Amino acid sequence: MLKKRIIPCLDIKDGRTVKGTNFVGLRDAGDPIELARRYSEEGADELVFLDISATQEKRETLLDLVGHVGEEVNIPFAVGGGINSVSLVYKILKAGADKVSINSSAVYRPELISEIADALGSQCCIVAVDARKVGDEWWIHTHGGKKPTEKELFQWAHECQERGAGEILFTSMDHDGTKNGFAIEALNKMSEMLTIPIIASGGAGNKEHFADVFTKTNVDAGLAASIFHYNEIPIKDLKLYLDNKGIKVRL
Predict the structure, then answer these.
(1) Residues 6+ apart with CB under 8 A from 54
(2) The whole model's pTM is what?
(3) What is the pLDDT of residue 66?
(4) Is 14 a known active-site residue?
(5) What contacts 249, CB < 8 A, 6 or more positions away?
(6) pLDDT tens per residue, range 191-202
(7) pLDDT tops 90 at residue 102
(8) Contact present, 82 and 108 (Cβ < 8 Å)
(9) Mean pLDDT estimate for the chain
């Protein structure tokens, strides 16, 4: 059985790490380079670095910052934000990242998923999906959660897999920053439906939430931000807790 991964996420705006609730109310959470170094030393399995305003500001990801972060870590490192071409993916990987995460650009031009997978391999292509529940349906949102679309979550996740995505990073906008737990029901449905790895994001507030998502769904990784940024849950403590619960993690 593959070991479950613990992944801190660094949302970057104006060169700083930020964090909000339900995708709004952003507040400063520290220097991304210092945080990246700390997480690498503390035993994080991977890092995700999202330049959250790149798409909205219609610009490319901050390549210099990617390079600096890449110099500080010795674990796999994914970058997202404003990625809309294979040529930009090459630049990001050359700057030091191991994977890219695409979101809005894939929604509006799904062919991008296949283009990246064909050029560089599915293993370096994460598709991030941000969704909000309306009634009984989950709907995809883009541009940092600001624009609702007519794409339904599970249909879109399946299409991403078919087009060559290597992983799905699913963030529940309703759970984001609330610290009330992951969207277990939706994650369980998605993990039963897909064969590629799923990263659960949105709602982690304590160690039990990670145990819940790993025991009640088949997701491969748990991602969180503020609980790690503000050192509310040290990564080593979380991993020891999960290991004691019989959940396989890399110690």
Answers:
(1) 60, 61, 62, 81, 82
(2) 0.91
(3) 84
(4) no
(5) 3, 4, 5, 6, 239, 242, 243
(6) 999 999 999 999
(7) yes
(8) no
(9) 90
Pick the catalytic residue from 45, 51, 130, 176: 130
93/240 Cα distance (integer angstroms): 32
What are phi and psi for residue 11, nearest 5 degrees?
-85, 120
Structure tokens at 204: 């982690």
Residue for token digits 């991304």?
A: 32
Is position 130 annotated as part of the catalytic site? yes
The answer for residues whose C-beta is within 8 angstroms of residue 52's C-beta and 6 or more apart is 11, 12, 13, 18, 81, 144
Q: State pLDDT tens for residues 23-81.
A: 444 556 578 888 889 999 999 999 998 886 654 554 455 788 888 888 889 999 999 98
Of 11, 45, 51, 174, catalytic: 11
Q: Which domains does the chain have, with CATH numbers?
A: 5-244 (3.20.20.70)
